[in-house]
What does this fold into?
Amino acid sequence: MSVGRVAVLGESVRVQGYALAGAVTLVAEDPDEVRSAWRTLATDVVLVVLTPRAAAALGDAVLERTREPLVVAMTT
It folds into this structure.
């Protein structure tokens, strides 16, 4: 894995705190916003943390990227 940034994608209330740790926060309150943010991820993002709702909105779309970024989903 190359050196890069961490992004956290999902609802504002769940992602805000990650900015304090230096993560790029991508606020998306509904499924359309989630998908839009996903399509426009910066190329230097190597890890994406998804809220449960964001993960559900993306579904199999996370499989479109075969190498990077690594994607993990929060638990409730």
About this structure: The chain has a mean pLDDT of 90. DSSP finds three helices and four strands in the chain.
